[in-house]
């Protein structure tokens, strides 16, 4: 439909040839109907990634491991049963498998598994296990979409800021400031991951994305499209003391853009964001010390406490500083007025002094509370009367009732503590610009419930996992961290390694990657208290952590049941990653843990079903049950014999179809 106010429609109307005019108007209308309002960017070709550990098989795409050519080929066949030499498509000829590396595009199906590389059991047996996955995060997200769809309470990510100088990789190539398509490549890169991340969130789940000035405005629009602008919650501003050119403004600013999966569901849940007011804990400690030193005398305790309070004044909010008295029970309080903010006739009533039984002065605007509420407060000793009826009583407002506040969407913290802390953990500086664990701990504590699942799929140096572990120790929470990082080598280090003749997949290359060199030793050191070199860092934490490599399986081997070991951790994850893992096929044909179960042999269904019914009767049913059978009829028979309400999964058909479907964003 033409619009007289539109310049393009006006120009079309000036065309003399009516046929040409109609054709152009028609084409313009088609463009308008297909155009959406919002962020518009080129969706670049699906990313490709080099997978050093992926097995060389018939039909896979490969490239030269030494990166001497950018050409890729398809493996057509092996030359003999040794499977050491392959015939490649096109001009690839014959190559030894040691010369090749698998290249996988993101539009192709994957069949992931997990290989445990480090298991640290340092916490209670019933505590959730924190999980770290080393692998391509897009593939790891596909894996988690099977195990954690709709289960995650908080996603916190700190993706590449796309400044042009941090050297992030797209399609196995570093993107720099001179790449004209760097923003659209970044948006393509982010959109693919955010679409899957959306599926992982609970209806009440929240995602926080850290970002800088370069892409903050584009990220906000991208999240509007992926999650809906109605689910925007906050744009948190972090004013740091980072270096910049200081010609216009001093210091650097980062952002945390926050969206809900479903803001209406989050509101309906009744969960509010709140945190302790700054300095409250120090104030309470000072009051406790004053109370003990005074021998429990309120007057002496108040005098000592006020002296301590004055020394902390610059660090406290005025609303906290006003709590300057200690009562006969050692509680901190302030004497507040009882005047109603509005003149209301029904709040004009008489209040009698408890000793003289005569009425005290009524405030001009009336009392703050209704008469029955005032009577309750007087009975509880929350109204402070003077020596006689000549003074207006005051409200005793206890500090313990005012500990928390809704957090402000802006804060100022220097960035150096993050680097210093990581250096202290590892003993040297290995990673540029890590996030401050205190900042991340603060926001996880505000947003995620104490028993929530927290996911970070741009895990980098491992700050998020350390923050969750520290937070659990601080408030006795049972939060579970799932962290995904890769073993990418920094641009500068990669250049030096290539000069020395090393390439991705070589041991010398891989040991310098962010997972092996930074993330893994950091988390191990934080939990155990000992660095890899044996030196002592701390007393450690009572936490359980397991670290995995993401592996790629042959679907044929999976279908024949020959890949149970790498699939087993996925079942454990889907069961909540708690307690022992079912890693071996038992002689009796089934296993049932406190959280999940596996039926390996359909012939022992009766015994398995009986055990599940017994567990459900005692009030501790498993979360999910895996039934291994190729027969749909046998699977349905098993389901009919199991208690209603427990999720069941058919292996390995559901596993294979899930990852085949997931390339297009579907679900099991």
From TrEMBL:
From the Swiss-Prot or TrEMBL record, what is one GO molecular function term?
DNA binding
What domain of life is recorded for the organism?
Answer: Bacteria
Q: Report whether Transferase shows up as a keyword of the record.
A: yes
**Gene Ontology biological process terms, A to Z:** methylation
Keyword S-adenosyl-L-methionine, does the record have it?
Answer: yes
All copies of the DNA methylase N-4/N-6 domain together span 152-472
Q: Which UniProt keywords apply?
A: Methyltransferase, Plasmid, S-adenosyl-L-methionine, Transferase
Which SUPFAM superfamilies would you find in this protein's record? S-adenosyl-L-methionine-dependent methyltransferases (SSF53335)
- Family annotation (InterPro entries): DNA_methylase_N4/N6, DNA_methylase_N6_adenine_CS, N4/N6-MTase_EcoPI_Mod-like, SAM-dependent_MTases_sf
Per the UniProt record, which residue ranges are transmembrane?
none
Family listed? Belongs to the N(4)/N(6)-methyltransferase family.
Protein name as catalogued: Site-specific DNA-methyltransferase
**Native species:** Rhodococcus aetherivorans
